[in-house]
Amino acid sequence: MIPSSLRVQLGERSYDIAVNSKDLVGVGRFARERVNGTSALIIADTNVLAHAKIVESSLSQDGFRVGLAVRPSGEAQKSLDVAKDLYDRLLDLPADRRTLVVAVGGGVIGDLAGFVAATYARGLPLLMAPTTLLAMVDSSIGGKVAVNHPRAKNMIGVFHQPIGVWIDTSTLATLPEREYRSGLAEVVKYGVVLDPVLFEYLEKHSSDILRREPAAVGHIVRRCCELKARVVEQDERDESGSRAVLNYGHTFAHAFEAAAGYGAWLHGEAVAAGMVCASRLAERRGLVPAEVSERQIRLLRAFGLPVSIEPWPIDQLLDAMRADKKSLGGKMRYILPRRLGAVALFDDIPEAEARAVLTDVRGAS
Ligand SMILES: NC(=O)c1ccc[n+]([C@@H]2O[C@H](COP(=O)([O-])OP(=O)(O)OC[C@H]3O[C@@H](n4cnc5c(N)ncnc54)[C@H](O)[C@@H]3O)[C@@H](O)[C@H]2O)c1
Ligand SMILES: [Zn+2]
């Protein structure tokens, strides 16, 4: 039984998020209960091949004729060229309009497989089996799927909700430490943005979480999925502004990722430093006491995440922030904390204040 809190309620596009530990073999049954097709294409990358093989045999056992497309890892896979190769794989299968596309991997595979599922034959059912912490708590829920344009990340995409999300947290055992910690930045974000109780849990159980102790990991994954589900239900297509709260720290983060050179800083690492900047900015505006930033800094440090930035030119950072697609009409918009567990959107913050914060955080160690 999946608790109702782990169902994303979107009318006819509603779906369940199943969180378990060590039940990857259950995925076939989960799929079978949700689709009536006879074939499936699994899309995975080389680093999760062992997990993908388990999914493959599970789907076979439940009566699917299964194809397995294994790609190299890395953001470069999110391209129209790779999508075209995957359309070929679907034609070869051959796929029909009920063929299930199954994403086994991190956010890269989820976005890519989701894009292929959304566009082939005007839309195939999509099942997400995320294997990174980031994909479990964020990218596999909510239906945003995309590939990159050579000049713009995630620029070619649509909304395509999955028919279900199957999370086996034990797949995290093979995830590299740095990727795991990077995912924790998004978990901290959920605490700051929406849930002070989650934030306290993270503070209290940081060492269990770092050790990937199953109960602690299960707890945080479940809670983040619940929070993301509620946000997506309120603002499925990111139009009303309520989904935008999840961009806390991200305007800064995107500038740091660009300044470091894409890939040098992982996304979550940039989000960690970005949240510190956003919180310091809130402090400058008198929105929160210093304690709110200090607690985030302590927690992020405990998770081994960066809380300061490299000596990048501030003008370059501000240019990147202005160009970020989350800014509207060149005006920078910030999600800033009002207290732990609550944020608001601000679009009237003088650039000098962002500059001052960046200068401080650059100098901090
Ligand atoms: N659609 C959305 O709503 C959304 C939200 C956030 C991020 N994203 C996208 O997600 C992507 C980042 O996702 P990510 O951080 O998961 O990165 P990723 O998919 O590149 O995975 C990180 C690395 O870990 C490896 N890996 C994955 N699972 C593993 C496992 N269990 N064991 C061993 N290795 C494993 C991958 O091969 C890769 O090398 C970006 O492209 C971003 O744009 C999408
Ligand atoms: Zn993010």
Walk me through what this model shows.
By secondary structure, the chain is α/β, with parallel strands linked by helices. It contains 14 helices and eleven strands. The protein has two domains: 171 residues, Rossmann fold (3-Layer(aba) Sandwich); 187 residues, Up-down Bundle (Dehydroquinate synthase-like, alpha domain). Helix content is 47%, strand content 17%. The chain has a seven-stranded mixed beta sheet with strand order 1-2-9-6-5-3-4, sandwiched between helices. A two-stranded antiparallel ribbon has the order 7-8. Strands 10-11 form a two-stranded antiparallel ribbon. The model has no long low-confidence stretch (mean pLDDT 96). The site of zinc ion has 4 residues, from helix 11.
User: Which strand order does the major sheet show?
Assistant: 1-2-9-6-5-3-4
Order of helices and strands: EEHEHEHEHEHEEEHHHHHHHHEEH
Total count of helical runs of at least 4 residues: 14
CATH hierarchy: architecture of the largest domain:
Up-down Bundle
- Biggest sheet features: 7 strands, mixed
**Pairing-aware structural class of the strands and helices?**
alpha/beta
For the secondary structure, the number of strands is: 11
Bound molecules: nicotinamide-adenine-dinucleotide, zinc ion
Portion in helices: 40-55%
According to CATH, the fold-level topology of the largest domain is Dehydroquinate synthase-like, alpha domain
Low-confidence stretches: none
**CATH-assigned homologous superfamily of the largest domain:** Dehydroquinate synthase-like - alpha domain
Euclidean distance between termini CA atoms: 47 Å
Rg from Cα: 20 Å
Strand content: 15-25%
- So what's the CATH class of the largest domain? Mainly Alpha
**Could you say which overall geometry the principal axes of the C-alpha atoms support?**
globular
Mean pLDDT: 96
What is the number of domains?
2
